[in-house]
Design brief:
Blueprint lengths: L3 H15 L14 H19 L4 H34 L15 H13 L3 H18 L11 H11 L4 H15 L7 H24 L1
Helix pairs in contact: 1-2, 1-3, 4-5, 4-8, 5-7, 5-8, 6-7
Length: 211
């Protein structure tokens, strides 16, 4: 049988693991649903192991396996929770409206410069990023949907045009920080991003025309 003191130590180990920053990103103040769920799981496992006839050495190894498995399970639940939260939190602030889907990447590049000249840096950066999405849809690398996250687009790009995936992630991250994260966007950063986008998209377009 497992010593009750050992089981208490195992509970404490799990709490230390779940207290790490990566397991606290979506936690609300007070006791979270994750704390309650794992407390119940540990209680059930404790009852089971206390009744099991195993040697002390085996019990120690088994308890560690349980703690690690519980932590892995917590990570999986956290990942699922984050993805759900991303979709829910953005349901009222869609990247694209249905009307905007019909614009071309050239339309969005022109709009990006217009917004920049008006000092509307965040809106201009949004147009620049939409130019990238439209460009990729025009080439059937992705299919734009109002409900998709940028990281779902990244997975599509990786499957079809992996050499473009780092470029997409770079600009998606900048857009996410400025648009959703409300990070301050410096004019110099905006113009650098727009210029890089124009160079990449227009350059690729000219390259395709030559062929």
């Amino acid at each position: 049988m497992i010593d009750p003191g050992q089981l208490a130590d195992d509970r404490e180990k799990l709490r230390e693991i779940l207290a790490r920053e990566e397991f606290r990103e979506i936690e609300e103040p007070g006791e979270s649903w994750l704390d309650i769920a794992w407390e119940k799981i540990l209680d059930a496992l404790g009852d089971l192991l206390q009744k099991a006839e195993v040697s002390p050495g085996t019990a120690s190894v088994l308890s560690w396996v349980i703690v690690l498995a519980a932590a892995a399970g917590a990570a999986a639940l956290l990942y699922i929770g984050v993805r759900r939260m991303v979709r829910t939190s953005r349901s009222d602030e869609q990247l694209l409206t249905y009307e905007e889907v019909t614009r071309t990447h050239a339309d969005y590049l022109r709009l990006a410069r217009e917004k920049g000249n008006q000092g509307e840096w965040r809106e201009g950066l949004r147009c620049s990023f939409l130019a990238l999405l439209s460009y990729m849809q025009e080439r059937s690398w992705i299919r734009i949907e109002t409900w998709k996250t940028n990281w779902e687009y990244a997975e599509e790009i990786y499957d079809r045009q992996p050499e473009w995936e780092p470029f997409f992630r770079k600009h998606a991250r900048l857009y996410e920080q400025a648009w959703y994260g409300r990070a301050e966007l410096e004019p110099a950063v905006f113009w650098e991003a727009v210029t890089e986008m124009e160079r990449r998209l227009d350059g690729e377009g000219l390259h395709e025309q030559r062929h």
